[in-house]
Design a protein that fits this description.
Blueprint: E1 6-9, H1 13-24, E2 29-33, E3 48-51, H2 61-79, E4 84-86, E5 89-94, H3 98-109, E6 114-118, H4 119-125, E7 135-140, E8 144-147, H5 148-161, E9 165-168, E10 172-177, E11 183-187, E12 190-195, E13 197-200, H6 206-209, E14 218-227, E15 246-251, E16 254-262, E17 266-272, H7 289-302, E18 310-320, E19 327-330, E20 337-341, H8 351-363
Parallel strand pairs: 1-2, 1-13, 2-9, 5-15, 13-20
Antiparallel strand pairs: 3-8, 4-8, 5-7, 6-7, 10-11, 11-12, 14-17, 14-18, 15-16, 16-17, 19-20
Helix pairs in contact: 1-5, 1-8, 2-5
Length: 385
Amino acid sequence: MERHDAIVVGLGAHGSAAAAELARRGLAVLGLERFGRGETMGSSGGRSRMIRLAHYERPSYVDLARASWERWRRLEAETGLAVLTPTPGLYAGPAASDVVAGSLAAARAGAVSHEILDAAAIHARWPVFHPAEDTVGVVDVEAGVLRADRANDAHRLVAERAGATLRFGVRVVAWRPASGGGFEVEMAGGSVTGAEHLVLAAGPWLRALVPDLDLPLGVERQPVFWLEPAPDAATAAELALDRMPLWLWATDAGTFYGFPRDDELGWKVARHHGGAVAEPESVDRRIAPADEAVVRTFVRERMPSMDGPIGGSTVCLYTNTPDDEFVVDRHPAAPGVAFASACSGHGFKFAPLVGEMLADLATGAPSPWSLGPFRADRFRGSISG
């Protein structure tokens, strides 16, 4: 019988990172993914994600983001895959908005290199942007674009080079302590037993794997678009990665975000949050006219030269907690089981670090990071040991 020291359920951003880290530590790892290699059904698919140091959500993310940046660079050296491209981050909106005030607070608390621009200075530097007069922009000098598909491929490559077995198209339905020790993982059509360590990184599907914890995880449908410039707009070169920042923009209609131009798809833009609550098994993955209208209204007001044809679109999923913080913890009734989810739309950049946290939790190794803010017991009673 095939024997594994550790099983990882879910091979998206955090699961693939955990599989890589466990395999680096010499464990025999089995990774199980219900979709295909490079899936786009959850929260980890697609081509681009932000890495930003001036995290408006919470200043303490600065240290985690710096550590993650170092690990992404290490992963690039380890695999030869280009994952991270530095580019400035522009976080704009009214001065009192969470995006601006929070980013500035994080930059100052974390000694992040930054600039503060008014509306005229934003437009002068990047003419594609047409800010309202009261707009303030915080420019995060230490931001960058992550190629999400390559990042996940790189972690899976590390895992497989270290001897991990990764299986795709395998749906896990349950797990339980095994009679002979370790854990039994039940799949549609079979089971695997005996692993002493189990990592659950199933993203929007996590709640079904830990029903006893009653985690308050809400799944949100997130439409994303790639637009080409309007016919009379600036040239594509002016919108490219070496000329444009990634950006977050607070408005009365919500916060929008985007990236420099992708040569294949166009300029990525979406509203951050505000999507419909969904069930992961039945989410509507079609792009509706109403989805496009939300983005078009913003683009026509603040970036009119980008009001061109759609180069691509998709629906991804956010898994949210009530406080928009992550969940990274050990199961209270099964100390060999670690789990993570609820990135609340801002967790991809931390994947290599979360992979280490999950490996520490599953194996009982001491962690250099404080996981208190991410523990599941903050939601009800004391469910974490």
